[in-house]
Amino acid sequence: MVGGLFRHLRQNLDFWRNNVCINDNVLQTAHEFGVVKVVSCLSTCIFPDKTTYPIDETMIHNGPPHESNSGYAYAKRMVDVHNSACWTQYGRRYTAVIPTNIFGPHDNFNIEDAHVLPALVHKTYKVWGSGHALREFIYSLDLARLYLWVLREYDEVEPIILSVGQEEEITIKDVVDAIVEAFGFTGPVIVSF
Fold this sequence. Notes:
By secondary structure, this protein is α/β, with parallel strands linked by helices. The chain has a single domain (about 5-190), classed as NAD(P)-binding Rossmann-like Domain (Rossmann fold, 3-Layer(aba) Sandwich). The strands form four sheets. The chain has a three-stranded parallel sheet with strand order 1-2-7, with helices on both faces. A two-stranded parallel sheet has the order 3-6. Strands 4-9 form a two-stranded parallel sheet. It has six helices and nine strands. One of its GO terms (molecular function) is GDP-L-fucose synthase activity. It comes from Pygocentrus nattereri.
């Protein structure tokens, strides 16, 4: 169960409950059927709200996630805990990938439920927030290729961040500026707080 900021705010408990159940069912069933490798998908929102940059995989459990999506973030963190326990108790090489913010064809552009980039495309003329928040993005097809690489080549239990190798995160304002330029938009860009 995934969604954007406003859906997380409305359904925080639903995100926690549904994702914990999904994760447990998938990993337990895989174990019971002797599946030797499972690659689960986490999210960058699992990282602590108060952190330093750049972030890396060792920082997942270093503090609480942002309260706006804590249900989802904690449920996803439990995948890492479950994977580690499967390794310790049964020697299962279950791992997880942490893709940066995904975008691509067939994305969800609904302003209430979309993730950052498709929501910004939808609101090319309006940005919510200061524009200073940092993000890193990955195109969905690049993520799919990296996911296959993890499935075939990555034999660790520890989660791995999947990124296209940008040197650093970019600000939301920079993303908005790029979208405005790509659309050839010449009107005002309104920033609201």
